[in-house]
Amino acid sequence: MRRLAKLPLPFAATVVAALAASAVALAHGTKHDPSGADGSHAARGTIAVVEHATTDATTDTGATGDSAGDVLTFANDVFDAKDQTKVGTDQGSCIRTVAGAAYECNWTTSLKAGQITVEGPFYDTKDSTLAITGGTGAYASARGTMDLHALDGGKEYAFTFHLAK
User: Fold this and answer.
1) What pTM did the predictor assign?
2) What integer pLDDT is reported at residue 25 of this predicted model?
3) Largest CA distance in the chain
């Protein structure tokens, strides 16, 4: 550091700033979650997670059995794309629109860097694409789509958020 003391002040400050920026970038890189669940792709990009559907509950309203108007609620854990590490939670609700076929849903997925909200259809027997309607933290003003794919007979769901800002 003594050698920097003999350099002109503006040059020394530039060197120190460059070294500090490199250290921050290196530290950030070592903590990066490739799934994006840590917010590293928050501005735009893809975040892939797996929901474990352990709390899903349907409240029968109106006609007995599966019918339009029934309410599905949930608050589940969310894991990284490899389905190994818990990275957050989700919670939301769906209204049955077509018995045996579809719900209309909205929910919030909470991750380390913030929350992402979605709204759209959930189909009983095929994949769904929902709209990203906003978020908080690193996902504030988020827009885009979320693909939903059933895994393990509907015990888990792959969520792929496609963030466009």
Assistant:
1) 0.76
2) 39
3) 85
